[in-house]
Please model this.
Amino acid sequence: MSATALAIALVLVASAPAAAFSARDMLGREVALAAPPARIVSLVPSVTEVLFALGAEARLVGVTDFCDYPPAARAKPSVGGMVNPNLEAIVSLRPDVVIATTEGNREETFAQLKGLGIPTYLVAAHHVRDVTDLIARLGALTGREQAAGPLLARLERRVAAVTDAVARLPRPRVLYVLWPEPLIVPGREALVTELIQLAGGDSVTVADADAWPRYSLEAAVAKLPEVILLANHGANTGPIDEERWRRLTSLPAIRDGRLRRVDGNLLHRYGPRVVDGLEQLARAIHPEAFR
Amino acid sequence: MSPQARLALVVGGLAALLVAVAAAALFVGSAAISPGAVIDAGRAAPASVESVVTRSIRLPRIAVAALAGAALAVAGVAFQALTRNPLAEPSVLGVSGGAAFGVVIGQSFGLGLTVLEAMGLTGLAFAGALLAAAAVYLIAAAGRGMIQIQTLLLAGVIVGIFFSAAITVIISLLDVNRLGGVIYWLLGNLAPIPPGALGLFAILLAVGFGLVLSHARELNLLALGEESAQQLGVNAERLKLTIFTGAALLTASVVAFAGPIGFVGLIVPHLLRMLLGPDNRLLVPTALVGGATFLLVADTLARNVVAPAELSVGVITSFCGAPFFVYLLRTRYRGTL
Model:
């Protein structure tokens, strides 16, 4: 088949549905849909969590291999990984929309889906307000506004409880370690940076403009962190090596025994469990306030 | 049998095999679509699953695999004739590495596969490929006339290491969120590309292939040595420059549109040489069809062996190519190394 014939095939595919319902995604793109989507494929674990929390899981027809929460998400058909989802598997699920992220999925995937005539709704979250925005948007997209309201109110109450508890406490310098080797830390645009702030600490790597910059160990040590938090990444990435940190005995955090592990899935995903992550951070930074 | 009849027979046979493999590849994939539905996909509603999977996913991917395989095999024949060295090949010579460096620079500035951006990516890949090939040639040729096999291979390895270090520099500066995509691309992955980019890819390959095929007879004479070739009326310097440009263009296009995929240019020409002998007039056109068939088989395996996940086709070609390279070293070129 010639390239021309292919082009014709693609044009036919792309021009099929008439848009009667449209939404603006979190990157401000217009997403044209024939109707409110009844069949959603999620390429983002956070989005999968939000859809379940909203009770919209019946509309969720496909997820990624990394969508492991809630456990029922595992029972949904998988379309593969976040970087290399299987296009045939996605098309076979006949989605009305694919929800994807600019942080973890690839631009090539969006271009391919566009070529196949499948609308993509893009999300991204750098702040807590983006998490609440995401929940509200997905509530509206799936007709579950009545579930989104109470969910958001509950989350806001729990955030307020944490910020109240740490309001008058001293703010220690916190080094958050996303990945030890090479050292990757949260910069200004990472959600974790704001969560550390809300949990009553100051991230020592906040000055970096990127979301997740690589960092030299020297630079991190020079900031004299008073708390060091090591993120784990689920069961399949192996144990955290604490020893290399314990050797840095001149650091206030090591001297005072404030090297702690945190559950990365609660802090790097931007679903409703981010509040569990916030409470966990507050306990790690201010154990005395939560006895 | 006259050479023309022999060529027609071999190319015809390989082309029939290519068509058969391409047809078979259309029927397998992780979407469970019955053979009947694949056959009917041309008549099915354009938005149906059968039609989209068959015509918009499998068919363009088959096209990319065939084009890339053809280009890599012809580039292999060209580099082997140019260097008079049977182990020369785009990835062994570091030329793919140079092209990959160009593409990674383009990607870090956000270039994708719209026709205009793809031109930019290919231009950068071409510049990188020329730079790498020139560096290998200068290092290996320094001070001597005939280039020794081991000098050339070592020069290729060193240039390859240099460019992978340069790629690592760029990767170290990338945001973590874009890291996965670039690394995935570096493994060599075929994916359906937009029709415009596919057309551009085909045009670039036609140019590179034309440059090599139109000089196949002169390449045979070059095998006798540059001086003998000159005496037989070949402008050896111009010939080398033309072939060099053509092979670099083929390599660069594949790297820009499909990623660095190794060893196709080694395996396919060698198998064909075992069948047909060293005549480049036979090797160039048969490598075109044979390379297309080989990479299409490799990609069909990559798409299906761990379905619904996918392997990188570069992994499969390297698994075949590395042992093949060792076999060639141990058997055919033992005395020369």
About this structure: Chain A is about 40% helix and 15% strand. Chain A has two domains: 3-147, 154-290. The longest strand of chain A covers residues 227-232.
